[in-house]
Amino acid sequence: MEKVLVLGATGGMGREIVNELTNKGIEVVAFARTEGKLKRFYDSNRLVKIISGDMLNQADVIKAAIDTDVIIHSVNVPYEEWQEKLFIIMKHAIKAAQQNNAKLAVVDNIYAYGRNGGKKMQENQHKQPHTKKGKIRLELEKIIKTSNVPYLIAHFPDFYGPHAENAVLNFYLNSVVANKKPMFVGDPAIMREYIYTPDGAKAMVSLALNESAYGQNWNIPATDVISGRQIFQIVNSFTNKKGKPLIVNKLMIRMIGLFDKTMREVVEMFYLMEEPVVLDGTKYEREIGPLPKTSYEMGIKQTLANLTKKQGYGGTDN
Description:
It holds the Pfam family NAD_binding_10. The chain has 13 helices and 13 strands. It is an alpha/beta fold. The protein has a domain at 3-164 and 194-224 and 277-294: Rossmann fold (3-Layer(aba) Sandwich), CATH 3.40.50.720. The strands form four sheets. A seven-stranded parallel beta sheet has the order 3-2-1-4-5-6-11, with helices on both faces. α1 links the parallel β1 and β2. α3 crosses α4 (82-100) and α6 (168-177) crosses α13 (296-311). The longest helix is centred in the first third of the chain and has 19 residues, at 82-100. The protein is globular.
């Protein structure tokens, strides 16, 4: 492999994917809308070519893909824009792959699986999404699979990590670092999984570099499941902030949604806070190798440190 195009290179996962590729000595075209962010993140990396453009402009995407072997699609948009934009963005990524004879590797979530009845989800599980957003993700998957482009689709649980700005767990960690009343979304007694974005990027790059991974779906689980209460204990051990978080429940999200269109779209996905979907990574470990697994203690510590640096507060205690 000579060169990889990363779409959404300034996002939480896209940024980690670019770093992982260049750590392996691979040339990267980093594509995103905001040139200032691209320059801030990658100007000092000699392996990165920066291209700013609009995913809604097909010509921009096709041009960025020139001479690339693989396109990694890690673009997302706010929930309220999914119906309007996600299909256009996917079709442009596919067209860019077709025009440049490139393979397409897609970062996806777990929404298309729907409810799973408490069992670990395997790739061959029949997808029966019951939400609007889950049905959109499944329709996008069908578009990819009928495109005649060599593809792989990687399903991830919720992200958290140094640059995962819009992740639900980062929302809580940010509130801790900012010395605000900490707020945690969902029942803190329920065991869920959150994947550390550098781990997710390592797994994604390993798939993208493996010819045999194409034509398949892959589940990339987190290191383990964890409860909110366990997360609170880990955070307290690093910050000495013993205050009890405010628990954000579905009713609160619904009420906020009366005034906020993004929160209005979050309501239907709240089932993931009540009936978590947990991924089975057996296939990946059998066919690709060991999954990258950073402990929650280390991942949260690194995330807190980065958020602290970004917000300009003092360092963590440990």
